[in-house]
Design a protein that fits this description.
The chain is mostly helical and 133 residues long. It is 71% helix and 0% strand. It starts with 15 loop residues before the first helix and ends in a 7-residue tail after the last helix.
């Protein structure tokens, strides 16, 4: 008789905080691009400056998304929130939209971190018999 193959090591749960942060950054990148369109269309700033700022902010959002797994993306995303709020200096509605995204960002970090902690605790309790000491 052959022996049963050893059970594969259980996979740790994914990060809710990373999922929340990614979703916020994707929507925020689109919103910043649209704000650039508004700034150009309403002639709130020279078109080249509006496109450069909108492009940089959207690019930073993408860079933050790309580096979330390493952890540095959370710092980049936090700095981005400040920059988006300050873009209200050019497009006044960005004071409000930037504040909304900043609040969502903070909530994603706090709530996502709590969910991740609870997931890890539950996962460790469920798989304690298969984990190495």
């Amino acid at each position: 008789m052959s022996e049963a193959a050893p059970a594969a090591a259980p996979r740790r749960p994914g990060s809710a905080r990373r999922v929340f942060a990614t979703a916020i950054l994707v929507v925020e990148a689109g919103m910043v691009f649209i704000a650039g369109l508004v700034a150009v269309r309403l002639e709130l700033a020279p078109s080249s400056e509006a496109w450069i700022v909108a492009g940089l902010l959207a690019g930073v959002a993408v860079a933050a998304m790309a580096t979330l797994r390493s952890g540095i993306g959370y710092g980049i995303g936090s700095v981005l929130q400040i920059a988006v709020v300050l873009s209200g200096l050019v497009v006044s509605v960005m004071w409000f939209l930037g504040a909304v995204f900043a609040v969502m960002w903070i909530a994603a970090l706090i709530v996502g971190g709590r969910i991740d902690k609870e997931r890890i605790e539950r996962w460790e309790a469920e798989h304690a018999d298969r984990l190495e000491p």
